[in-house]
Amino acid sequence: MTHELGSSMRVRMMFRAITALGKSLGIRVAAEGVEDKEQIAFVTAAGCDIMQGNGLCQPLTPADFEAMLCGEEYCAPAVAIASGYDVTPR
């Protein structure tokens, strides 16, 4: 569904309704396939709790994933920021 967010008002309305339903049931809502800044903004504004997709981070090789876990430069801050987490160093 996320791939059609930019082109279909009906899909945007359905996305908002599904997100609201999940929230009203106390379910964390996740969006998969978020591909660009516009989709990130829409999904965030709709109240989605978590998102995944190439708009946040490209797929990682096992070596890149290991580097990410070791604290080298990686894309997780973008994911955290888009999900509303404070990534300010303490």
From TrEMBL:
Keyword Endoplasmic reticulum applies: no
Record key words, sorted: Hydrolase
Gene name tied to this protein: dosP_4
GO molecular function, a single term: cyclic-guanylate-specific phosphodiesterase activity
Catalytic EC class: hydrolase
One Pfam family per UniProt: EAL
Protein EC: 3.1.4.52
Organism of derivation: Enterobacter agglomerans
Record PANTHER family: CYCLIC DI-GMP PHOSPHODIESTERASE PDEF, OXYGEN SENSOR PROTEIN DOSP
Signal sequence bounds: none
Name this polypeptide is given: Oxygen sensor protein DosP
Domain EAL: 1-73
Cited InterPro entries: Cyclic-di-GMP_PDE-like (IPR050706), EAL_dom (IPR001633), EAL_sf (IPR035919)
